[in-house]
Amino acid sequence: MATNRRVRFDYNLIDEYEAGLMLQGSEIKSIRDGKVDISNAYVRITDGEAWLMNMYVAPYDAAGLWGQHEPLRQRKLLLHRKEIESLRGQAEQQGLTIVVQRIYIVRGVAKASIALARGKTHGDRRDTIRRRDQERDIARAMRR
Over the Cα atoms of the chain, what is R_g? Predict the structure, then answer.
């Protein structure tokens, strides 16, 4: 439904998790329509619960006035207690960030692929670009 391709460029991904999303009725319908933006989304852990912040889900037109949801509200992530504690511990001790890679639907249930990540420096990003260009040049040469 939505993919944040920029995550792999800006961060070194260390560990990945799959989490369920607690949504309202109009939110799941908007997500199914593909009207979701996760480019600024991240995960915050407070009071032993994981919350998805800054994910924009467009209002659903057919929901009517009272059935609408707030587009940028916090959404609870459904993870096992051990996963939440592991994420919290690593994020606090090692100074890591928890980012959202993609939102998708499995058998009617909305899921989020989240990752524990360390931010890349400007030099790391340059190396990534240089490596990608070299691999592309090698692939072109092999095709000839």
Answer: 18
The domain segmentation of the chain, as residue ranges, is: 2-119
Note the pLDDT tens digit of each residue in 58-95.
888 777 776 677 788 899 999 999 999 999 998 888 88
Helix (H) or strand (E) run with residue 15 in it: strand 11-21
Q: Which CATH superfamily is domain 2-119 in?
A: Small protein B (2.40.280.10)
Q: What is the mean pLDDT of residues 109-129?
A: 90
Average per-residue pLDDT for the chain: 89
Q: What contacts 127, CB < 8 A, 6 or more positions away?
A: none
d(CA 75, CA 50): 9
How far, in Å, are 25, 91, 143 from residue 99 at the CA level?
A: 25, 11, 37
Residue position matching structure tokens 């992530």 = 77
